[in-house]
Amino acid sequence: MSTEIFVHGDEALEEWDWGTARPTGRMVMRRRAHREGVPHEGVHLWIVRIRAGTPEVLFQRRAGDKEHYPDCLDITVGGHVLFGQKEGKIQKESSEEIGISPTDEELIDLGYYRYEERTPGLFHREFQRVYLLRDDRPLSEYRFADGEVTGIYAVPLRSLERLFDEDLTFVIEGFNGRAPLLHPVGKKDFHPLLFAPSMVVYVEVLLRAIHELAAGVSVSARMPSPVG
């Protein structure tokens, strides 16, 4: 059972040990964790759909009032694991952000990624549990209830991969909760950390897993061991 604790809009997380990649049972508030680099657990879900044999990766659009990276195209679903939450971690975030709750059997678990980010005013250490899901439903069937997501977009895998080598502009299909739309995008429209050196291994594993999924073979790609 999850014990959700909020204090003045802040969230209670569980501290993890940076060396052993294991939870400690100690509580830490999110703002302090992000200020002091206290390790904690996060969850990521990447959804892939295949239309006419073409794989597409779904990206959420972050709300314009988000504290970090507003309006950027980001991971389909991502969030923190609250203190005391033991089950349904990614399902909770997915239900809140895009209105679906996949079963554990539908998810492909790519393992934990040991992530560290340092910018002025932010020291973020997180063990990110990464999942992959194939879901071919129309974009219009997603719902955005929590105000953190303003739309969902389908990015062709081939165009996404080209962005890592060159900047280009291309048009993607999206849905903003009210109507379908077409939106021209380039590298500047995506979360900048997607292209950061700290994410190179993460992205390599993710893209390999997506190619395996699209090919209809067993997904063998896994994140490297998070143990320091």
Describe this structure in words.
By secondary structure, this protein is of the alpha+beta class. It has a domain at about 45-80 and about 90-110 and about 130-215: Alpha-Beta Complex (Nucleoside Triphosphate Pyrophosphohydrolase), CATH 3.90.79. The protein has four helices and twelve strands, in the order E-E-E-H-E-E-E-E-H-E-E-E-H-E-E-H. It has helices at about 30-35, 90-100, 155-165, 200-215, and strands at about 5, 10-15, 20-30, 40-50, 55-60, 75, 75-80, 110-120, 120-135, 150-155, 170-175, 180-185. The strands form two sheets. Strands 4, 5, 6, 7, 8, 9, 10, 11 and 12 form a nine-stranded mixed sheet that branches. The chain has a three-stranded antiparallel sheet with strand order 1-2-3. A hairpin with a 2-residue loop joins strand 4 (about 40-50) and strand 5 (about 55-60). The radius of gyration is 17 Å and the shape is globular. The two termini are about 30 Å apart.
